[in-house]
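Second attempt. The first submission of Squamosa promoter-binding protein 15 had a stray character pasted in from the spreadsheet, which I only caught after the job came back as garbage. Lesson logged: always re-copy from the clean sequence file. Corrected sequence (150 aa) follows.
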Amino acid sequence: MILAVRSGRGSEDAVSWVANVMLSVGLEDRLNAEAFSDWLDNRCRCREPGMGPGGCGSLRLITGVDHQWGGHKNPECQVFAGALNHADLTAVVEHFGSVAWRNPNAVQLFVMDQEEFFFRVWMIREGALRQYAPSSPNEEDDEFWPPVGS
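This time the job returned cleanly.
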């Protein structure tokens, strides 16, 4: 399966290439989310040839009782987030789709690569990985940006 995930630009000598990643899961999939995070940190392919696997970063629960959001209540969801460095995002999305989620209809993966300006949202429906974000316009299209002078 070929996934339309932009890996971005850069070289092995680059200081960093950061992708913002969030994972939303139901309570029954917290252990799977933690295992996914461990895979990112220890086995995820890097986007640059010659870089070994792992070391891209991990995800941390950002909806626990010790994390304050705006409003007067605690979040009622399980969201993990992280800033991954040099991660092969095609591998990240493919691995997300291969996890044996207990409730695959409830999991969502949000990915925003460096030099991108909106999250691409991935979900699993009818056993298949699907992207739920418009593919165009994107950051490389002139119509994405506001008109000059506005």
